[in-house]
Amino acid sequence: MEALLNTGSTIDEGRLAKGGNKYSEDYKLECAVCWMCAEDYASLGCPDKVAVTSRDGRYTIAVYSKVTESVRSGHVFIPRSIWANVVVEPDTFSTGSPRYKGSPVMVEPTNEEVLSAEEIVLKLYMGGE
Amino acid sequence: MVFKNIICPVCGGSCDDIQVELKDGKIDVQNACKMGNAKFQEVVSHHRILKPTIRENGKVKDVSWDEALEMAADILVNSKRPLFFLGSETSCEAQEVGLHMAEYLGGLADSNATICHGPTVMGIQESGMVGATAGQAKNRADMIVYWGVNALESMPRHMSKYGVFPRGYWTKRGRFDRTMVTVDPRVTPTAVASDLHLQLNPNSDYELLSALFTILNGREPHPSVEEITGIPISVMKQTVEMMKESNYVSIYVGLGVSSSYGKHRNIEIALNFVKEMNNYTKCNIGALRGHCNVAGFNQIASYLYGYPFGLDFGKGYPRYNPGEYTTVDVLREKDVDAAFVMSADLVNHIPADSAKYLAEIPMICLDIAPCPSTTAADVVLPGVIDAMECDGTFYRLDNVPVYFEPFTDSPFPETKSNEDTLKQLFAKIKAKKEA
Questions:
Q1: Least CB-CB distance to A70: which of B186, B261, B350?
Q2: What pLDDT is attached to residue B145?
């Protein structure tokens, strides 16, 4: 499914980040989550987890799925965090700021493991060091 | 002992009414929001970074302060083009030392604005801003518009302290004297608390603002704007009428405007709309700045070097060109060869291409708790918590400077503050360069 990715704060994302708990299970359960409407969730086959892929197909991240009435069909939301930023478009349109809002992504069901923030750094950014 | 009127160092709200009691290794915090309380608990947390570390042959080991500063200085002195990311959860005084270091080494200096309200600042440079302090909005505004911002979750006390609920001089009944409008593609808690929610389609802020501008000028917008924005023209007209009939409209914009497609042009047209609205009623606009002292970096960088963020000292004098000298871009284009990241978790908050390169190059990180940036860093320097363990200056969301005083001391005998740590590092850099 093609979708526009919106990212942003949630109060518990803020509480856990400001409290220095980015490597906690709670942070993963709060932030590694893709919010979508019931219609899109059903069209994907009601998966527990989804793989979100960047428009250029270079980066994919597995996150939990969550049904919400707060977004419309074709739009998904991931709390601002390392999971969301793996697939956020890096182009800044000559402003310095990437597209944290409205990045085009692909969303598909997956059985891949949801990585922790530390695992993303070690495996994806540091090449398995 | 109970300490009163402590400044909170979490978001741009800079709440100045925090009450703190430190007792038996525990901290009791009153008046702070969930985020603020979590940050105050860092003073006594078990995961606080208390020792400097370095990465050697892939292994992380504890070292003395002097060894860590030596290695940090070596990395920066040997770099051809270092990036100084001077984060916002620290004082202007520390940021100032970082800016001078970047100038001395011919590197780049940037801060959280670059991945936050940088496009807002660019929009202001394009068209100027009808601004006001948060106190003005509190005392006068009878209509509040949150555009592209979920204030309840990104600056939780904004609505109760400045925006919607407080009783002001001309708004004595608080919430009952104010109309609240939210413009957001999501039904956020802020939208739920509003009198009117315009649930526009993502990336259509510019079109919606253009249509409002057209209506304000007495013209009919093109019918296609309904499909593009998802908002009926009748609702747009109602919104403009509500604004014109108000005594004072205060608009707060968030990343929903500055980070969506259109970027600084969205802000530019919003600012022009506000100027035009002042022909009908009093109207101001401001950015809801999510990071603590992010406004402070813009202020002191502009004061010292003429530009608000994304400064390049490569030619020996400051240059500014967002998209070329800004953090995400220089990392994506592999245009720097070392980085100093202070009081910001940069690896967590930038896109994968940029984060991956940042993890590849030598990086020094100054922070208080383990996070993706400290994991990827080659040198980690423990941070001192501003407004809790040392004094200094923040700039609030409305660019009002706020002097803060601590209620406890730095836990490190080697340093009094992040400013002190940076001064020690700068002294080592100068000694190495001049030798």
A1: B186
A2: 98
Distance of CA B17 to the CA centre of its chain: 21
pLDDT of A83 > 50? The answer is: yes
Domain residues of chain A, as ranges?
A: 2-125
Picking from B295, B326, B290, the residue whose alpha carbon sits closest to that of residue B129 is: B295
pLDDT, average across residues B395-410: 96
Q: How many CB pairs under 8 A join A and B?
A: 199
Domain B118-287, CATH: 3.40.228.10
Question: What is the crossing angle of helices B205-216 and B264-277, to 10°?
Answer: 20
From B217, B207, B266, select the one nearest B244 (Cα to Cα).
B217
Instruction: Report how far residue A6's alpha carbon sits from residue A25's, in angstroms, rounded to the nearest whole number.
Output: 23
CB contact under 8 A, A85 and B368: no
By C-alpha distance, the chain B residue nearest A59 is: B352
Work out the number of other CB atoms within 10 angstroms of the CB of residue B360.
Answer: 15
Residue B16: how many other CB atoms lie within 10 Å = 15
**Fold designation for A2-125:** Barwin-like endoglucanases (2.40.40)
Q: Please answer whether residues B77 and B432 qualify as being in contact, where contact means their C-beta atoms are separated by less than 8 angstroms.
A: yes
Residues in Cβ contact with B242 at an 8 Å cutoff, skipping those fewer than 6 apart: B143, B179, B181, B196
Q: Is the dihedral of CA B390, B396, B401, B402 positive or negative?
A: negative
- The helix-helix angle for B264-277 and B118-127 (nearest 10°) equals 50
Would the CB atoms of B116 and A97 count as touching at under 8 Å?
A: yes
Looking at this protein, which amino acid is placed at residue B370? P
Strand order in the sheet with B108-110: B59-62, B53-56, B379-382, B363-367, B338-342, B82-86, B108-110, B311-312, B319-320
- Report pLDDT digits (tens) over B292-342: 999 999 999 999 999 999 999 999 999 999 999 999 999 999 999 999 999
Band (B58; pLDDT cuts 50, 70, 90):
confident
Residue of A nearest to B9 (CA): A18
With beta carbons under 8 A apart, name residues in chain A contacting B114: 96-97
- The CATH code of the domain at B49-115+292-434 is 3.40.50.740
The alpha carbon of residue B238 is apart from the nearest alpha carbon of chain A, in Å, by: 23
